[in-house]
Design goal:
Layout lengths: L2 H55 L2 H9 L5 H13 L2 H13 L1 H9 L11 H20 L5 H23 L5 H26 L12 H32 L3 H14 L3 H19 L3 H27 L2 H7 L8 H15 L4 H7 L6 H23 L1 H27 L6 H17 L8 H22 L4 H13 L4
Helix pairs in contact: 1-6, 1-7, 1-9, 1-10, 1-11, 2-3, 2-6, 2-9, 6-8, 7-8, 9-16, 9-17, 10-14, 11-12, 12-14, 12-18, 12-19, 13-19, 14-17, 16-17, 18-19
């Protein structure tokens, strides 16, 4: 897959490194230095900002990728970029005004159980704005096939900044409240650095011209707001709902569990940075067979890699929680439920990229609206009954329903299929390894237990996948490594 493979490998390395830093932050520094209350406030602010992000970006981050491939000349591309950079302001300004005037009703909803959230509510739209424009500038470099730097900024630099801020709390240079305000500054720096890099890759030439397909651009952007909002809500809506029914400290427990489970989708996050523009290009050129091949390859590659990560987490989860300071182990079942939902996301490959670039994309809007009502209803029903486990259950059910609808939509409308017989073989390997290792532990210190068990799991899992040739690309990487080590 050429450039896909090259940049995916770089992005995977960066993303794993960033996740390592994030793991130290989320599992050890937040829990040790910040405490459950302030950790819960951070989770609520960032989740609210993530939900607002598609609105703040006005869907432009995906609109840019879709329509850039249709620009025929440099002049047309310059006009398109100028319009794209200014277009979100048409929505951001009214949204901020509405937030200002309706701050009180929002406060009543969020603060009835947790009044300590009030000083930080205004950070939600501000951080959402920073996130939104970061995605716009990141999309600009992605259409020029330069996804690595933006990934490095978002995955590594921001997390290192947060780590420094957490140590600043520990050294008593700043208070816990000040840390939360400084967190917003970290996301502004993310935006600013990516903007400078985007201008270096391609300095915009301001040409104030309304594109001839402006109606189509607005229509697609509204679709992205809905579909992107739905996707973000699947991840973060529960963390906004939890403080409405439970103490904000429960969000700290939930956030730790979510972070552990999210490791499963690291390969997907890395690969999709470059595979989205490739998908858009293939669809613009109407190369159906190549697109179908890319769909299958992305699905099985992510299933193989994600399956190993999921097994590593599920089979070591008890030992992982023994390492985390404080009593966070009540989130174990949350890890399983959210982990399964992440894995289902993973095995669909570039399904979302296909939907975002198909002429049928507007049809999915109805599915998105239905899901929002389903998700709200499930959270309202399950959280009072089962607490954070109820929130995770609501997310799993919502993901299963929504992703299945999108999968069937692509199969029926586009005649594209992500699954093969290798998909079933991969599921069988995952189930076999899980049953073989779940019911026992080494009698050593948790880190040694995790290390030994992970080595055994990895060797058996990789061997079975290699012998059955589940993924040609993964086998190719293994063969290259073996040859370099002169083992073949």
């Amino acid at each position: 897959m050429g450039i896909v493979q090259s940049q995916s490998i770089k992005n995977t390395i960066i993303t794993f490194f960033g996740f390592g830093i994030g793991a130290v932050n989320a599992l050890f520094l937040y829990t040790q230095f910040l405490g459950k209350m302030h950790y819960g406030i951070v989770a609520t602010v960032l989740s609210g900002a993530n939900i607002l992000m598609p609105l703040m970006a006005f869907g432009i981050h995906n609109t840019l990728i879709r329509f850039y491939a249709h620009c025929k000349s440099e002049k047309e591309r310059e006009e398109f970029l100028t319009f794209i950079l200014l277009m979100p302001l048409l929505f951001i300004i009214p949204l901020l005004v509405l937030f200002y005037f309706f701050q009180e009703p929002i406060s009543v909803f969020l603060l009835k159980e947790n009044p300590e959230l009030k000083p930080f509510l205004w950070l939600i739209p501000l951080v959402g704005l920073f996130m939104g424009y970061f995605e716009i500038f990141y999309a600009w470099v992605k259409v020029h096939m330069q996804s690595v730097f933006g990934n490095f900024i978002s995955e590594v630099v921001v997390r290192l900044t947060i780590m420094l801020l957490l140590f600043s709390v520990y050294w008593q240079w700043i208070s816990k409240d000040t840390f939360i305000y400084c967190l917003a500054l970290a996301y502004f720096l993310q935006l600013f650095a990516t903007m400078l890099y985007a201008f270096k890759v391609k300095m915009p030439v301001l040409r104030f011209v309304i594109p001839h397909n402006v109606k189509e651009i607005f229509g697609y952007s509204f679709f992205i707001i809905i579909s992107g909002g739905v996707a973000v809500m699947l991840v973060d809506f529960d963390k906004v709902m939890i403080p409405s029914y439970l103490k904000v400290t429960e969000n700290a427990l939930y956030s730790v569990a979510i972070f552990i489970a999210t490791v499963i989708i690291v390969p997907s996050r890395a690969m999709t940075q470059i595979i989205y523009p490739i998908t858009a290009k293939l669809m613009a050129e109407n190369k159906h067979d190549e697109l179908n091949d890319l769909y299958k390859k992305s699905a099985i590659n992510l299933q193989v890699i994600g399956g190993l990560l999921m097994l590593g987490i599920f089979l070591n989860i008890n030992q992982i929680y023994l390492l985390i300071p404080g009593n966070y182990a009540t989130g174990t079942l949350v890890v399983f439920l959210i982990g399964l939902s992440k894995f289902y996301d993973l095995i669909l490959g570039n399904n979302n990229a296909i939907i975002l670039n198909t002429k049928y994309y507007k049809t999915v809007l109805a599915f998105g609206f239905l899901l929002v009502f389903l998700m709200i209803g499930l959270n309202v029903f399950f959280i009072p009954l089962y607490g954070i486990v109820g929130a995770a259950l609501a997310t799993l059910i919502s993901v299963l329903v929504y992703n299945t609808i999108k999968l069937l939509f692509v199969v029926k409308k586009m005649d594209l299929y992500p699954f093969t017989t290798k998909t079933l073989k991969s599921f069988a390997i995952i189930a076999l390894v899980f049953l073989a290792f779940y019911f026992w532990e080494f009698p050593f210190y948790p880190i040694i237990n995790i290390g030994l068990k992970s080595i055994l799991i990895s060797v058996i899992y990789v061997f079975l996948n290699y012998k059955l040739n589940i993924s040609t690309e993964v086998n190719g990487v293994i063969d290259t490594v073996l040859m370099k080590l002169k083992l073949r």
